[in-house]
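Homework help board

Subject: predicted structure for assignment chain

Our instructor gave us this sequence and asked us to write out the predicted structure in token form, then describe one feature. I got the tokens but I'm not sure how to describe them. Can anyone check?
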Amino acid sequence: MIVKLSNGKEIPIEMHKVRIVQKANLLSADERLKAIEEGGYNTFSLRTRDIFLDMLTDSGTNAMSDNQLAAMMVSDDAYAGGESYYKLADAVKDVLKFNYLLPVHQGRAAEHLLAKVFVKPGDVVPMNYHFTTTKVHFELAGGTVLEIYTDEALNTQSTFPFKGNLDIQKFKDIIQKYGSKKVPFIRMEATTNLIGGQPFSIENLKEVKKFASDNNIPLVFDGSLISENAYFIKQREKGYENKSIQEIIWELMSYADIFYLSGRKSTCVRGGFIATNNKKYFEDFKVWLPVYEGFLTYGGMSSKEIEAMAVGLREMTDINVAGSSAEFVKYFAERCIEQNIPVVTPPGGLACHIDAKRFLPHIPQSQYIAGALSAAIYIASGVRSMERGTVSMERDKDGNEVYADLELARLAVPRRVYTMSQIEYVVDRLSWLLKNRNLVGGLKFIEEPPVLRFFFGKLAALDGWGKKLLDAYKRDFGTGY
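My token output:
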């Protein structure tokens, strides 16, 4: 919730009480440099004992509610026909209006099943923007991902409220070029992760649905951050300001033929599912579920997770839950802007995204700008961010580097986890790093996996810039934290 202070300033107020706490650890700057060097300048390789604030992702790191934890205690562990499944199915019917449910262990498992059932060699899959695992699954099945985002999508200094919109004319051009039979479905991601957690509007979704239906193309909705997208629609789209989050979600779902999500985000619990009202689609997925996931009534999830997800699905329609991360991200971004730290605007869901190209203009993309910035942020603060740039891309079939559209360092803000004082600390260290950015250099790969290299790849700092940054930090802050 946003409240106005007596001085006129607006701040987000946490609409929850903290009853259980987890101890945090802040290493010295020397220890942080050692940790990132041993991790190959890849923040994924850091151990949690080395991290002060873990802003790598909001996936599986959100705080669960007391009601979710309580629900886990009454789960039904039956291999088949467990009652927990039916509680989740009821929640899916009530919140999303879908009659058929297939639980999976997480979002990428749903993507795998989508690829298995729908995507054939030679197919093209249009979407408002790709996600890393989505693209890999569809390409492994022989398809080609076509991103048809709006012109504003890649403008990191923008006031356009719905940069996650899909360009309808580009959609029409794809059908003209490939024909509708080569398009197994069109995918809309809420919100678009890799371009700054940007939402799309209902107006745009309506247009996408109409054209897709006219060409007999199913609309697949990735709703991993559906409640945040609904929250932005309420905040930004004319005619929806008086609608509830639940009412907006119902309308969003009325345009989807297939819905899937990673429950690690909006429902605050590990797991995921596919949902639909189309019995044929359900049956097509169902036969493969035991092969890759598990039986229908658990699908790779524990019964405890299923119980918690049923509660979390209902709770995400509460405006104070849907807006908890979004408003903290907004506050975070606005404080960064006050310090001239270049961030993606307007602030989206999921995270505060630093524009690495503007932060480190002296580093070429061939030296992995966003990866270098994420490593530098850790050295300067003990805060773990995630590279969302060229390291997160795949090389082409000839082994050539494919440069990312944007180079972002993503500082995720999990729901109900961090405090405003911790956000202020991050902003302060980012401000210091900006003043000393000339000390940050590029990176090079020393171990490079053939796929999804950002998870396990190891890099090295060119010209040993990590030590130079450490020396400057100790000069200004001493040998402590």
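Reply (TA_rk): Your tokens look well-formed. For the description, you could write something like this. The two ends are 32 Å apart (CA to CA). That's the kind of observation they're looking for.
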